[in-house]
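Hey,

Quick one before I head out. I ran the complex with NBP overnight. Inputs first:
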Amino acid sequence: ATANIGVVGLAVMGSNLARNLASREGNTVAVYNRTYARTEELVNAHPEAGFVASESIDDFVASLATPRTAIIMVQAGRGTDAVIDQLVERFEPGDIIVDGGNANFHDTIAREKRVAETGIHFVGAGISGGEEGALKGPSIMPGGSAESYETLGPILASIAAVAEGEPCVTHVGTDGAGHFVKMIHNGIEYADMQLIAEAYDLLRTVGGLEPAAIADVFAEWNNGYLESYLIEITAEVLRQVDAETGNPFVDIVLDQAGSKGTGVWTVQNALDLGVPVGGIAEAVFARAVSSKPNQRAAVQATIQSRPDVQKASDVAAFADDVSKALYASKVVAYAQGFDAIIAGAEKYGWDIHKDKIAKIWRGGCIIRAQFLNRIADAYDENPDIATLLEAPYFADAVREGEAAWRRIVATAALSGVPVPGFGAALSYYDSLAVKRLPAALVQGQRDFFGAHTYKRVDKDGVFHTLWSGDRTEIETEPSTH
Ligand code: NBP
């Protein structure tokens, strides 16, 4: 037994993670893949890594020093379960199995329970950053027991991205906490991407700018408060020219966005938790709408004319408005994502430190940005704030951008530019900001058709109006006083 860490599953993610591990001093990395050819390919291509390769799972397990630690990087779902079963059969109490794939956190909770019964630790670890992250340093969100993190923590810290001197890894919480937080990360990523796409659409349609000019705008934004990996790569994508046609790359790509499901999971779970995540949900829906060519064509065929675009007269001022609307909408999306984390932590019993989550997202992952420091500061200052929008920095940012935000949503509506992200974020903000909501009328409707009862603004108790009778009010539950 010579290896201190093993990797099972050597497709793109696993082989990159194994190479990352092997590049860190002190690690000897055992590798195993169901199909041996893949193992051979990796080992031959990277002799410098000094991999300990095994053709059989038995040899792989034997090559691990005790307590054994193995990271599974195989296809989420059945592949993961198959490997867990193989390892559980051969591991001993105290050994650690890590699932680094994109598992659904409900599966992780069930797997942890099943594996923990054998005395073996099971850690579901969200790993973000794609193949480059896996190789050069991802953001890592491990769940599982605190005990297993004592062994695993230093290994993960050695391969994680580093942001401002700190490794982008923290023990998120027990059992499925890591995969839950990874799921929310992906939901926020959907929202961030959609908002950026809407900003591009506005700059092009209303601002009249060509993709290359918009790339310049984004590159400039990347030097300011919007600085982020996603803004940076957006500029690169917009600058790209198609070699075949000479057209902007963005114009030759079919406008139907795909998704792999983690954004959908975020919204499904937010619905279950009763957390409004409209900014994230609209981003998921926007991809779904884009991928309905039949419905789009059907509506387009019925249209006589489209609204006149309210062309921007001062493009620089318009771009400034768009950047403020983008920032305010982004703040809302992140606030909603963190609300979902808070609700998940409460429901599933996780002691999640919001400031630490914001910090481990500063490097290695897709939503990496300086901006996350502001979120970390806000929760560090007061972990119990009701919403990020209450934190002084964000309250100020939204206040400063508010007028621009409204102008942009109004201009988009008048011009017929779809802004589901900007619009949902602004409506959410207004819903929190307005003194009275029409929810009072909804309560009245519910009481009318379903006797669902209501509370009054002026006294305690629960009431029902006899709508089909003489319409007098009765108290259905006595007041607490
Ligand atoms: P894939 O998701 O394409 O899975 C291929 C690997 O799974 C191969 O090693 C394959 O072995 C193995 N495998 C399968 Br399929 N069924 C198996 C079984 N029943 N028993 C044992 N091994 C099995 O690999 P990937 O794209 O490298 O992704 C790995 C994990 O990382 C996935 O969970 C994925 O969702 C996640 N991921 C994360 C990111 C990110 O940014 N965080 C990006 C991409 C992927 P074989 O060679 O014998 O077929």
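The CA atoms of residues 181 and 341 lie 7 Å apart.

Talk tomorrow,
K.
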